[in-house]
Write a structure and sequence with these properties.
Shape: globular
Number of helices: 14
Strand order of the largest sheet: 1-21-18-17-2-16-3
Distance between the termini: 42 Å
Number of domains: 2
Strand content: 15-25%
Helix content: 25-40%
CATH topology of the largest domain: Rossmann fold
Radius of gyration: 21 Å
CATH class of the largest domain: Alpha Beta
Amino acid sequence: MNRATVARRIRANGMGVLGIWLLCCGGPGGLLAQRDSAATEAEMQDDRLAVERGDPHRDPDLGQLDPMASVFYGAEHIPQFLAAWNALLRGDATARQSTAPLEVVHFGGSHVQAGRIGWSFRQRLAADKPGLIIGRGIHPPHRLGRSNGPPERGWQSDAEWRLQSCANRNHSGEWGITGVEACQADTAAVRCWSGSPAGAHCCDAIRVFTRPDSSVKFRPMLAAGWHIDTALTGLHGITKWTATSGASAPDTLLLEAEATSGVLQGVEWRPRDVDFVFHDLGANGANATSWMRNPHFAAQLSAVDPGLVILAWGINDAHMVPRRFDPSRFLDHYRRLIATIRAAVPDAEILLVSNNDSHYRYRHNPNAQAVRDAMLSLVAPERVACWDLYNHLGGKGSIDVLHAAGYAAADRLHMRKDGYILMGELLYEVLVRAALSHNPATP
């Protein structure tokens, strides 16, 4: 596919000025040397993009955004989320059917673990609706185990921690919703920080995720005015502390183990009066079968109780020799996942995300198209929605265009920083436009 074809597809699917600029101005001449790992490249950006990208792609007047039917399928299958999302965007408190925050859980592989898709989504929402209080969701301990993760969040400990991931077939663990465990055999304390400046949004609840059957619990060292929420504590490995008397949590927590060893699966800061929470829960290399290895996945998902669950593992489902991809097995795995999610959270609705175009062993991978087609075949029978990211980014050959413009990594599989930010912005826009199309009332 040549650049003109990709440009026409992106224009037709709503990428607008940014997409046109990406294709017309991108080229290999100005890129930095791209010999770094995919995790490192996820934090690289081309100097041109830092200057040129951004506002031309945005339209803050939500009422005038057009539907994107050509890349979003099955909107009729997520009506509760779209209605709540629409009410949130319009600031219509009376239209909200619940006083609880609207929560989205985004599952995936390395694209999601990098943290920039969710970060970009939250940034766009905050820019469009400055009055909303937005939560960053569960903070998995990737960096505690020396893996990559959202760069604005962090972990620090004097102990040696070993990361066990459900995506690694050589690992075993009592995983839950995050799909990872950081394990230590020491009594050293752990520091973690949320990425929010102190005082930006006061947090009045802390949730710590660990093994349900473990006697080892981690206690955040908090000032006076906190108590354990007995209704949740000990349930499925989740311990919750709630503030009283106007107390609030700092942006950096000190966690102390209550025994000689410990396992951490995640920490969440809950802002006071939070309106919206977007959880990024990815594991490098994860595919559709990875979370099926997690014995406490369903129970913890039920405790989180999201309104929308996004499944975005397709890129790793496609990453194999073309002849090995079996659509029937792929579909069976997703049907089982969908059934598990619905049994755990009956009111949650599900959005599938097709993978981006990619290479396998330095050659174009036709499985990317095959995964996209298989996902779309699930929309009607499984009553799910699907965002066709594959075609939104240009379809076959688009990964080479994105790489030349500085958005995709050298392996033509992962993205660089601005590529993941772009994905988050596009996800935000397709959901906004779907919500307004589903319920076209405007402010």
